[in-house]
# Entry
Amino acid sequence: MDRDAFIARVGRGVMSALLPQVGDFDGDVPQIDDGEELLALFRRRAVAVDAVVHGPVSRSGAARAVTGIAAGHDAATFMAWEDLPASGVVPALVEAGLEQVDHQVPEGERVAHQSSYRRLDLGVTGAEAGLAESGSVILAHGEGRPRMASLVPEIHVALVEVETLERTLAHWAQRHPEAAEETANLVIVTGPSRTGDIELQLNLGVHGPRHLHIVLIG
# Structure
């Protein structure tokens, strides 16, 4: 099979693919009780994987927390989700002098526009949930929630509502069985991007953000 035919076949498969029907889950998720509350466990596990945890702060205080992070990294540009869980974050960043990079690609200017992502310093996203067991955050991408905001910048700031914290991924999935069908891209982020080379040297930020800041809201 030649290359064009192969790519066309893959394209048709992607467009027509359907998730298999999964029956109701009758079992119980693991009941883990180690005597540590979710918030404290989440903070400890997130710090252990090199994330920086802020708060909890109020919704009105989230903008100040994010602008403080931006100032600490001397960020000059940013990209943000349109539906952040706290209002005022984007205006506060603009007022602080940062330039907002639009995630919408103008027609006929894709190459020039995407080249501007090379100078993107800061990405601000919300999160579906935080997982206490691993210190991870769950991101659901889609309209108004560009993947670039959490993949391209050197600094990723995730706003996580304390009420969304779950013990494990299994607990979250049990409460949100529809999640995989309702988003084009569901990602679990655990700390900054990290890569181990052939000499077993761990490097941060090679294939994604070098810094992950989690701002807890609640």
Notes: The longest strand covers residues 155-161.
